[in-house]
Every structure is written in C-alpha cells, then in structure tokens.
Model the fold of this input.
Amino acid sequence: MKALVKFGMNDGDVEVRDVPEPELLPGTVLVAARAVGVCGSDIHMWRNGQSWEVALPVILGHETAGVIAAVADDVTGWQVGDRVVCETAASICGTCALCRTGRYNLCPHRQGYGAIRDGAFGELLCAEPRVLHRIPENVTFEQAAMTEPFAVAYNALVERATVTPGDIVVIQGAGAIGALALQIARLRGAGTTIVLGTPVDEHRLAKLRELGADYTIDVTKEDPAELLKTLGDGFGADVVVDATGVSIALKQSLELVRPFGSIVKVGWGPQPLNFSLDPLVAKAATLYGSFSHTWTTWERVLSLFSTGALETEKVLGGVYELADWKRAFEDMESGRNIKSVMVMPG
Ligand SMILES: [Zn+2]
Ligand SMILES: [Zn+2]
Done:
C-alpha cells in the first residue's frame, strides 16, 4: 500500500513509499483511512524539529477517520463498514496506575500513532477496539478527522484550566490548536477572547475573527499587555492558553495572566528557558500542562460536531490527495491553512 513515511532524522526526510499492508492481529481491527488531518506535530516531524521520541521508519498521521475493513475473530462489537475515528495511543500497558485510573493518555508505555507506531497516512491502520469511536451519521470523514485536535483543545480548556463564563481568555498561537481553543473558550462562555500571532498568521488571524475572536493581535506590532489593561478590571487574562510550541511564550503568558489566573500549556517546545518564574509565584498563578485526551473527551467532541456546536468548516483549509502531501503540509506551515486534511487512496 502507499503510505507517507518518515525515514530519517534530517529536515525533509519524509516521502510516499510502497509498504506492506499491516497484519490483522488478534484483538485488533484494520481501519481503511478515508480522511486524515495534518497536525502541527506532523510538520515538526517532516522538519525533524520534534521534541518527542520517534521510531524510524514510521508512517505519519494520527488524526484518523475511516471505515473498518477487517475484524479479528476475537473482536466483538465492531463490524466491517463501521465508520470510526481512532484515538492516538496505538498501545498502552493497561496495567499501570495511570491506565487503571483512566489517565491512560499519560501511560509511560504509551505508543502513539505516527511517531512510535505506524500511523494513518496510509491505506490501512491496525487498531485495538479500545481506541475506536463511532462517527455520528451527520458528521463527514473530513470533519471527523478533526476530532483529535478538538479533543486537545477541549482537554486543555475544560479538563485542565477551566474557562468560566465571562473570563478573559488569551490564546497564544493562531494555528489549529489556537483556532480550536478559541471555539472551546467561546462554547464555555468566555467574555472576551484574544488571539495572538505573528506576521505569518495574518490570514489565520482574519479567519479567527470570523470565528468570533474579539481581538487578534500581531505581537510584532502591538503589545497585548496594553490591551489587557483596558479590559475588565485591567488585571489581565483569567486564562492564557499557550498553543505556540515555543518555550519562550511562557514568559509572555506570565506577563499576561492575572493574579490567581491560570496558564495552560499545550504546545511543546524543546528549547530551554532562561528567565525567572518568579511572576508565577508573585501572582499565585497556576500553570497547567495539558497532554492528549481520553475516551470521554472524544465522545463529547463528536457529539458537539453532530449538533453543530463546533464549527469545523471554517477551520478546514483544504483537502488533499496523499500524492499531494507536500502541498498539504506547506499550506499549513506557511499559514495559508489552519488545518489541512488528506484523503487516502483506496
Ligand atoms: Zn494532532
Ligand atoms: Zn499504563
């Protein structure tokens, strides 16, 4: 089958290759991928700028929507033809304290699709039933492929730092996670939403204003701290979401958060920090890390797609064939798209 493979540890070491189809192992199903989202993390791996472990060669892709193509004899409850999305942990140990308390997203033995285990930018994906969710009838594959990044945003703003109605919410980063965090913040009743970007985000920031951002700021031209002084009591943001993937963004988060406010960090950045965390203490602010998601989050997001409470169309910049993967990646990297989705052959 054709698949998009990361084969080396240099910038650009990604190509479409012919690879063997995955085997239908006991206890698993094969999912024929139909639509698969391109994640910021896929672009990091294309550029070899990832700060997480990868096992080479690996098929990229973890934002999977498809149809079950085969079911092992010992699997019940799932049938060929079922429309499904797949969570991102291809395997977990199932027995550690985190797995047994429902926090399997943090299992130290977690092997993620598209990094350690072969992902979904291919025709077939091997999955344990544990990761499957049914796609509601009125949700398309292209929409369903966005369940994962929406689940990331939901986890950050509902299950970690909680947005309260009326809150001032600052979102650092205008990429996919920033855009989806904006929608979740608005759904939670945020009073004022402010999205921060850089010149490369010009097009995305305009899209985010359409999606309801009250303010969008190019931080190279304007200081968001000045705006915050004019909002509410002037003490700053109740919640700051770091969706940038750059460590230094935390310095700005600490500046913008109000005393007793919260910062939730979603973006990864391997760069070391060289500034003081004293403002965190002085403001008695709370800093949350937010990683991945669990079963309930996926079900919630799918039901919000189904009712139309979350808008997927404005976020989806383009749908591309696998052969055209480079354009799908470049259109996200350059800021033309908030989200690219690829459709798989077969
Ligand atoms: Zn993702
Ligand atoms: Zn575990």
In short: The chain has a mean pLDDT of 96. Residues 39, 41, 62-63, 148-149 surround zinc ion (ligand 1) (CB under 6 Å).
